[in-house]
Amino acid sequence: MAKKISMGARQELVRAVSSRYQAASNAEKRRILDEFTAVTGYHRKHSIRLLNATAALLVPRPAPRLRVYDSAVREALIVLWEASDRVCGKRLKPLVPVLLDSLERHGHLRLDSVVRAKLTAVSAATMDRLLAAPHGASDRKRSTRAVPAIRKSIPVRTFADWKEPVPGFMEADLVAHGGENVAGSFAHTLVLTDIASGWTECVPLAVREGSLVVEALARLRTTMPFPLLGFDTDNGSEFINESVLEYCTELGIEFTRSRPYRKNDQAWVEQKNGSVVRRLVGYRRLEGIAATEALSRLYAASRLFVNFFQPSFKLAEKKRIGARVSKRYHAPETPCARLLCAHAIPETVKERLRLVATSLDPLRLLDEIRSVQQELAGLAAGELHHGTPSSDAKLDQFLSSLSTAWHHGEVRPTHQAKPKPTRHWRTHTDRFESVWPRVLTWLETEPDQTGLELLRRLQAEYPGEHPDGQLRTLQRRLKLWRRAAARRLVFTSATVSKAL
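Above: the chain's sequence. Below: its structure in token form.
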């Protein structure tokens, strides 16, 4: 009898019997308890607890919390995350409106108004949770030979001496691309980072020489959106020499240096060495004119991508209480956004920056970066590889792969070998192949049906063909269908793109 009574009937029985049980004598309680256990099938001790504490045990369970950000929001967020070169949630949050406007303006993305509103409202922490699955997938000190007289004539500047400079005071460093063997001649990258805004410039050098540093500075002064006011370097001979010192003195550039073997004195540019140069180029050996030219094309695209579409943190305050150090940061902003807010930048320069930002296509820049990275990987491996300009067809293919690129791990062709191809064949017969068109008709009319509801309908129409053990397989197919439906809401079709 206990097997035939439902859970709802058991709860109604508890409510009806509990008051009489609590007011009865001991003998009467035993009789009521015998009848209650016989009807419900509950254990005797469990029955006593139920009848004595119904108010606490029969509180209805709260309804499950509805998911605010569905598959369409997650798919769109993955595209924006890939288009930002996989920055963290805190850096992606202020970039979402910029990316949405840019991608929609260039016809790469078309979002439903509800999806767009949710994307702009999602917090940085929720972004990291939604991107959890995509996310889951020794330094030698080089002895330098410096001229003591020149070194003494250049003042020392530490990290604490920067305070709040105006745009134009930059830290500089040289990144070597010698791989595991530093013998012989190989390419280098000159990196300059503005302290106030984080604006970063990279220039490839075929060899490590002071005269090339001067030529690079002369070229950068014509392209940067602010004048070069300060030049802070380490103690390498490529910087501490008469050519660089004479150049800075003639143009009134404040030339300073860090303390020997104190990398924290140049924390700003050291951070960019890793987050920009090493992230883009890697650690393999690059040498020769071909590699230098490829690096030049890479930095031409990455310069715009990093400075206009890569928000970064900036330290606002640092306190030490005993052994504990607490740091507070400003809200993440792109270097371009910081320059637009700087009072020292003329309005004409700001207007030019706004025009450049409006004309840039982040996906086209990212596609160009990936193309040159493939070429650099071939050059590092000793293969003859020439880069070709990205066509619209290649750009469309690159766009369509953004939402699934995370399945293949870190996208860094200069860092690792190509990933193994994913398996596309089946190991078992598809039990739903013949009935899937019928399931699709149900989903078109009622897209909110669960896998269990669909299986029950299949069992009713096709008796004996679909046992309960096929539920998990049907749920997987349903998940793939919902993902495809979400992608249709996110991506612009080819015909719509041409019409726009």
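The longest helix spans residues 289-309.
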